[in-house]
């Protein structure tokens, strides 16, 4: 008989799917803390963020990936290569399809890519089941089963928490036997500075339209406790947009919009880090940064 210690499972999972299918929300619901930002705008996620799901006898490290889509800009291409390299490095893949939308070309495109990653088992996840009735969910399960030969197909709702435990069990069952990879209770290894930048970007995305969401990038230049004031954290951040006209929109009349974004971001950062925060947020124009390799590197998107 093997001892309990040797039966511990630990490893990596990632969720893939079209933009906006609920991958980040699902990861947050599984991890139980807000580590990846979500928004109703597609392509919100730009980095592989890890959350750690602690279960009795197992540790599941979830890598969040950007939505897989056909590349349009240089940023898009880089996102796709990031997703594909992630797929070969994990132990199990969760392929997300929303319950409330018909399967389309985008889903088939991804299913085909996944079929090429032969070594990694793929669990299909039908997300947002709270938005569809039972028959619609049943029809979607059938449609998904016709897309490819998945290890399992699991309907869930990150909103209500329905069957998230079943999903976690199924993902864990496909992890290798391994000692824990992270200390007990640790939820993410994403550097705090990146999380803070993402929270600021999330606050800035609220209420902006058209191409502007994709033009916003945030970099935390400096962050640390104020000398002599251990209860106060100073955060200096730059928000980049691509054109001066966008800068005007982000700042708003008499700076009202920027002030509002700063206040909301500060509250989120304070909630995340459990400390008071002073946020210094400056807007900068980085012309067409999405298409400029040098700017992309500066903003943290590497080849
Ligand atoms: N009702 C409902 N809405 C959900 C659920 N999961 C996600 N959503 C919503 O769907 C939208 C997109 O969710 P995200 O988690 O940002 O989607 P994503 O797939 O990570 O998106 P990208 O980062 O663009 O790839 C958000 O408005 C979520 O609130 C769910 O289970 N039920």
From TrEMBL:
Q: Where is this region: G5?
A: 156-158
Query: Which Pfam families does the record cross-reference, listed alphabetically?
Result: KH_2 (PF07650), MMR_HSR1 (PF01926)
Q: Does the keyword rRNA-binding apply?
A: yes
Primary location:
cytoplasm
- List every stretch annotated G1: 17-24
- Cell location: Cytoplasm; Cell membrane
Q: Where does GTP bind?
A: 17-24, 64-68, 127-130
For this chain's UniProt record, which GO biological process terms are given?
ribosomal small subunit assembly
The cross-references to InterPro entries, in alphabetical order and at most eight, read:
G_ERA_dom, GTP-bd, GTPase_Era-like, KH_dom-like_a/b, KH_dom_type_2, KH_sf_prok-type, P-loop_NTPase, Small_GTP-bd
Coiled-coil region list: none
Q: Where is the Era-type G domain?
A: 9-180
Membrane topology per the entry is:
Peripheral membrane protein
Check the record and name the PANTHER family matching this protein: GTPASE ERA (PTHR42698), GTPASE ERA, MITOCHONDRIAL (PTHR42698:SF1)
Please state which protein family the record places this protein in: Belongs to the TRAFAC class TrmE-Era-EngA-EngB-Septin-like GTPase superfamily. Era GTPase family.
This one is known as GTPase Era
* Organism from which the protein derives: Sphaerisporangium rubeum
Q: Which gene encodes it?
A: era
